[in-house]
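User: Hey, my collaborator sent me this sequence without any context and asked if I could get a structure. I don't really work with proteins. Can you help?
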Amino acid sequence: DSYTMSRDFEIVDLGVGIAAVDEDGATLDGVVLGYYENIDDGDDDDVVVTEKKSNTTFEVVGGSTITFTADLFPGFLNDNEIVAGECVDETEQELVYEWTVDGVVQDSMTSEMIYAFPTDVGDVDVTVDIISSMCLEDRKVHNDVYGATLFDTSSKKANDTIQIKVVDSDITHNGIKGFFASTAHNAPEYLIFLLKMTLIVGLMLFVTSFTLGIGVRE
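Assistant: No problem. I've predicted the 3D structure and written it out in structure-token form, which is a compact way to encode the shape of the chain:
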């Protein structure tokens, strides 16, 4: 018997995604976009309601310090990192990072950025731009062995952006204000809509009743 073995060589596009963890090392959860039920199960007694969370929008409490990390694709790039400089080893990969927060370039030039958010409430965009360059000697090897052109192995760029919603701490909410703030923050959007409609209808009925009462007295 004879066997033939082969190995495919593929040049893939550079990719990057931003991961974020809080001061305790916990991964940030995306904001809740809504809820859905598994309607294919057919058993109404065991319906499981699942949250649908965003992959690009997250919430942090004002004043928090968050660590952002660039997760590269292909994954081996995360282990072979030479940052913004000459190729120390001709077989290594040179990676250049640029982090921006609302368009303002940050000091970090590595795969990690630590950012302390202000206490001001609002939306903040966090972006990382990556340039990956293969060292010249490595490019020559790819050309000689695999037939990859120098254009195929030229520098690649990728970027990713996530949105951070800076919110008030629950500690700052007191009494009735805190109740409504907590309800608005945690309740699904359709419940908030129903609450608003109920308040509007109630207000309309009160105004109508008050107006009719004045007319009867006159």
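In plain terms: Residues 42 and 97 are 50 Å apart (CA to CA). You can pass these tokens on to your collaborator as they are.
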